[in-house]
Design goal:
Elements lengths: L3 E5 L4 H5 L8 E5 L5 E5 L5 E8 L6 E8 L5 H16 L4 H4 L9 H14 L5 H14 L2 H5 L7 H10 L4 H20 L18 H4 L11 H22 L20 H13 L14 E2 L4 E4 L7 E4 L2 H16 L10 E9 L2 E6 L4 H10 L6 E2 L7 E2 L4 H15 L2 H8 L4 H34 L1
Parallel strand pairs: 1-2
Antiparallel strand pairs: 2-3, 3-4, 4-5, 6-7, 7-8, 9-10, 11-12
Helix pairs in contact: 4-5, 7-8, 10-11, 11-12, 11-14, 14-15, 14-16, 15-16
Length: about 450
């Protein structure tokens, strides 16, 4: 993609902060370091780069140095000078910078790959954040420090198998790693034709018996059990937060009692009350909530932003979230569902980022409620599959269709881009109706046999 070029006297921090995104990408060159530039994308992403020529060559080479904010501006300028000198000397700085003695680690390779994808506009900033979150959560510290050329199929398989209960998450990570290892081969960080991820089969229902993309709505009994568990667990957490005059909890949690963090419980209930997708509420900030207008603006929605109306149940939940944040010292966090781990110190107090993972707690809750093998996947050779967090959204959509009866209204409520997605809920109701009819038919047959006897 061609970009417009502008010149600036000196690319310091003050000038960089004034760079604003426009309708088309543009490049701002620094006049002190020849070829050093910042590329500004319409999405607002800024990336450092360098354009340089080898001695006696007429061909310009472009090198991605990284995203603005990933490191200091002074570090980027020094890196640009070293990279330019290496190019003029005929060396390849792309591998030299991180492959001085021991080679490129898995973590270093991922960060360089991420910067490349963002710079080439193959990833948006949101996509980069999601893949970074996946990489941090699912790759162990030891494996991150391992040289990428030494990583074997068994190590990647262990990561993939650990996510078998969430096949969509596993397959998304697998796809990213597959492209990452191809990139590593192009950079000579690994031998040619050594992409071990290509040998890894994606999780799907046919080959491994795990549901992949099939919708399921909880029946009335299952839905009631989930909501009752969440309500009881939230009440228990609130009771544990209550303090006596001595500053001690009024109640203590039993050693054998599993009780997730209160914000994980509140986020799960928020999903059930709104029908949002799994990760959409986790990026919710207090500034996105307009209680005087009775609306919530979801900025990280799949199909652009989404507006949700505040119901009395949601108002009560938000009140609990505020009180819990204050009691736990997380009230200065801008996130509605802050993490229990701080990500630094701001204004003399610990700062808490957003909750990033609901899956671990959901797996335990699911098993506790007997939803680990709860339903049969329609049209999939009747294979049993567990209830996912996303099935709370399917349940919300099914209840909405039962109450409203108009598919167009439900489509707007669920923020579906296509009508086919909304039709899933109509199909789920038909499946439930057929199942109910079979159950009633079996009961009638049983009574008839008893009457004949």
């Amino acid at each position: 993609m061609k970009t417009r070029a502008k010149h600036l006297a000196y690319l310091n921090d003050a000038k960089i902060r004034k760079l604003k995104p426009e309708d088309k990408p543009y490049t701002v060159y620094d006049e002190e370091i020849r070829g050093f530039f910042i590329r500004v994308l319409p999405s607002g992403t800024l990336s450092y780069g360098l354009r340089a020529k080898r001695e006696g060559s007429k061909v310009s080479y472009f090198y991605t140095l990284g995203e603005v904010g990933s490191f200091s501006n002074q570090y980027a300028r020094e890196w640009a000078k070293q990279t330019r000198q290496a190019v003029q000397d005929g060396r390849d700085p792309r591998t030299e910078a991180v492959n001085k003695h021991t080679g490129v680690t898995f973590k270093e390779a991922f960060e360089l790959f991420k910067a490349h994808q963002v710079f080439r506009e193959k990833w948006t900033s949101g996509t980069a954040k999601k893949y970074s979150s996946q990489f941090e959560r699912h790759v162990s510290k030891a494996l991150k420090k391992t040289l990428i050329k030494e990583i074997n199929l068994g190590q990647i398989t262990d990561i993939h198998d650990a996510l078998k209960s969430t096949p969509a998450e596993a397959n998304r990570l697998r796809s990213m790693l597959k492209v990452l290892f191809k990139y590593a081969e192009r950079k000579d960080w690994r031998p040619k034709d050594s992409n071990i991820v290509e040998k890894l089969e994606p999780w799907d229902e046919e080959s491994k018996g795990i549901k992949n993309g099939a919708g399921y709505a909880l029946n009335d009994e299952e839905y009631a059990s989930v909501m009752a568990y969440l309500d009881q667990a939230i009440t228990r957490r609130v009771a544990l937060l209550a303090r006596s005059k001595k500053g001690r909890p009024l109640q203590r949690r039993k050693k054998d009692e599993f009780l997730p963090d209160i914000f994980i419980l509140l986020a799960l209930k928020f999903l059930a009350l709104t029908g949002l997708r799994h990760r959409e509420p986790l990026h919710l900030k207090w500034e996105h909530i307009f209680e005087e207008k009775g609306i919530i603006r979801i900025e990280e929605a799949k199909n652009g932003f989404q507006t949700k109306d505040i119901t009395p149940e949601i108002t009560e939940l938000l009140g609990i979230a505020r009180d819990a944040a204050k009691a736990l010292g997380r009230d200065e966090s801008e996130w509605v569902f802050p993490s229990r781990k701080s990500d630094g110190v701001a204004n003399g107090r610990f700062h808490y980022g957003p909750t990033v993972n609901l899956e671990k707690s959901w797996l335990i809750i699911r098993e506790h409620l007997g939803l680990g093998n709860a339903h049969i996947v329609p049209h999939r050779k009747k294979k049993v599959a567990p209830v996912r967090i996303h099935d709370l959204r399917h349940t919300y959509g099914t209840i909405a269709y039962q109450a409203i009866g108009n598919a167009d209204d439900v489509q707007r409520l669920m923020n579906h881009d296509q009508r086919a997605s909304t039709d899933i809920y109509i199909h789920l109701l038909e499946e439930q109706r057929k199942q109910d009819a079979l159950t009633v038919g079996a009961a009638i047959k049983e009574k008839s046999l008893k009457a004949r006897a």
